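hey
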């Protein structure tokens, strides 16, 4: 999940090394750690906690430590805890949702080790909701059993990240750098030697050297104009890794959450999948229920199916929304189970228990990402990725609800343990280019970002076509031409990264001539069995298809 943004500046300083001169910098402060973790969502915190067992760790986050996609996750975490449930069932549900693109070995690891990770958290003191001594298990779209653990009703993400944050803060060998953004991965001969960062509190460029670097920067859904993610989810890690030479996989698959509150002029507020899991129904603008005729699971169909169905209803009725209703459910149960959602909606004069909720899909989750092996390592030695930013092989073409927090725990731990095994590689740092911030360019960044968000929503949103994607690429190329040839200013760099990410999505979406999971082509409406492959992107290389590991 993600982290980032900036507001009131706070800096938690670690021990510092002497500043030394470098040929291409006036001066730079060099900090050395065994492991660097970029990002402070659940994956980053998990990785930092486990990495700290074997050495010193730096957490670098461009906002506050507790701002991330993970923190705002409502639904819960999927894990097999009920004796009537099974690993086999959870694995099959994940594979079904992934529409043929899940790597079986990765899914098996997720489900089996996920149970252990959850039990470990419980043993450390994490409390999930119980009733009469038993876990209260929720049901969400695509799941064949109730297996969703939650904490604080609909505040599971907050509960988990707050718990792991406390564990991280208890470790003396973890140093935290808030309001510090990574601007480049330092890679030489496909060996990652650390990162270059910019400290907003001091205006200084910093060098972090390490034997291992773990990217846990979360998703990119804020490249769209309607998103459930915090404003920090801008895909930084994807752009950094790609430009450093890391391989990306399946970046065309973007999951749009079916149910986000639609209020004109207001941010999209997530209405958890768990709401439909408890029995909520979807209605057309004319008050007709439509999901039972589309899928056997009705409102509990996988997210890609529900989001597409809602999109079609909106197109049919020329409406900006459909309705979600809980009016037929027990109001006291709903208020208790979804306390956060209930009280948030009251601010809009909407009663969750009695009113029809206007909802529409919103960009929610990046299904693909930086390609890793089963231990979170990329094709660059010493560079790891975990959480939403990574493509571990678990999610396929469409993420099964509530598997994301589980993936953070499992692969955050795996990445840390493998990172701890690495030895320092003797190699010279690459040439460093100093970055500065010119506040005069902030409006340019915001205007350009909004322009691209509108473009991506219209041309590369839920439903795509070759014509729309090509139009998007043409416009993105035009925007790119406005940037200086050599970028040394932070706002220009952010624009460049945003362009890179949007182009990568559009290029992959253009190549995948089929509809599958979170990628829907109106000009290729069916799945193509010949395209049941991972689409791999690598800077300077042609696109490649890679076989799915299904045995």
């Amino acid at each position: 999940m993600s982290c980032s943004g900036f507001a009131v500046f706070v800096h938690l300083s670690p021990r510092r090394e002497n500043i030394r001169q470098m040929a291409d910098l006036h001066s730079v402060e060099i900090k050395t750690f065994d492991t660097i973790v970029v990002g402070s969502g659940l994956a980053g915190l998990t990785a930092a906690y486990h990495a700290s067992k074997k050495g010193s760790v730096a957490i670098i986050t461009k906002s506050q430590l507790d701002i991330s996609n993970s923190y705002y996750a409502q639904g819960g975490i999927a894990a097999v805890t009920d004796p009537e449930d099974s690993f086999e069932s959870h694995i099959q549900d994940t594979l079904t949702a992934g529409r043929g693109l899940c790597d079986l070995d990765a899914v098996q690891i997720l489900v089996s080790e996920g149970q252990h990770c959850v039990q470990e958290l419980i043993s450390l003191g994490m409390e999930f909701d119980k009733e009469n001594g038993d876990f209260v298990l929720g049901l969400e779209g695509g799941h064949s059993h109730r297996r969703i653990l939650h904490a604080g009703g609909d505040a599971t993400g907050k509960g988990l990240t707050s718990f792991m944050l406390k564990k991280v803060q208890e470790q003396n060998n973890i140093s935290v750098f808030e309001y510090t953004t990574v601007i480049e991965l330092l890679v030489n001969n496909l060996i990652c030697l650390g990162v270059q960062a910019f400290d907003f509190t001091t205006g200084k460029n910093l060098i972090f050297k390490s034997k291992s670097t773990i990217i846990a920067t979360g998703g990119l859904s804020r490249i769209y104009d309607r998103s459930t993610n915090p404003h920090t989810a801008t895909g930084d890690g994807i752009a950094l890794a790609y430009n450093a030479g890391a391989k990306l996989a399946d970046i065309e698959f973007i999951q749009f959450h079916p149910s986000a509150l639609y209020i004109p002029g207001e941010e999209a507020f997530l209405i958890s999948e768990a709401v439909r899991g408890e029995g909520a129904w979807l209605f057309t603008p004319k008050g007709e229920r439509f999901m039972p005729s589309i899928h056997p699971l009705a409102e509990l169909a996988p997210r890609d199916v529900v989001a597409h169905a809602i999109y079609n209803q909106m197109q049919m009725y020329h409406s900006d929304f459909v309705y979600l209703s809980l009016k037929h459910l027990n109001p006291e149960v709903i208020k208790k189970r979804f306390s956060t959602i209930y009280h948030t909606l009251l601010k809009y004069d909407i009663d969750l228990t009695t009113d029809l909720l206007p909802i529409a899909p919103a960009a929610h989750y990046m299904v693909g990402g930086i390609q890793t092996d089963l231990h979170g390592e990329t094709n660059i030695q010493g560079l790891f990725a975990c959480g939403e930013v990574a493509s571990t092989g678990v999610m396929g073409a469409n993420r099964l609800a509530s598997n994301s927090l589980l993936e953070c725990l499992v692969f955050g731990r795996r990445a840390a343990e493998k990172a701890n095994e690495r030895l320092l590689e003797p190699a010279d740092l690459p040439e460093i280019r100093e970055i500065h911030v010119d506040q005069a360019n902030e409006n340019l960044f915001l205007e350009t970002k909004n322009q691209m968000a509108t473009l991506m929503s219209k041309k590369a949103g839920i439903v795509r076509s070759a014509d729309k994607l090509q139009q998007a690429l043409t416009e993105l190329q035009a925007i790119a031409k406005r940037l200086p040839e050599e970028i040394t200013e932070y706002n220009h760099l952010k624009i460049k990264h945003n362009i890179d990410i949007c182009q990568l999505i559009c290029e992959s979406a253009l190549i995948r001539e089929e509809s599958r999971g979170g990628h829907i082509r109106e000009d290729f409406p069916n799945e193509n069995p010949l395209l049941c492959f991972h689409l791999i992107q690598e800077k300077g290389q042609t696109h490649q298809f890679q076989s799915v590991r299904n045995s």
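The chain has three domains: 1-7+28-253+367-422, 258-360, 441-527. Confidence is low (pLDDT under 50) at residues 1-26.
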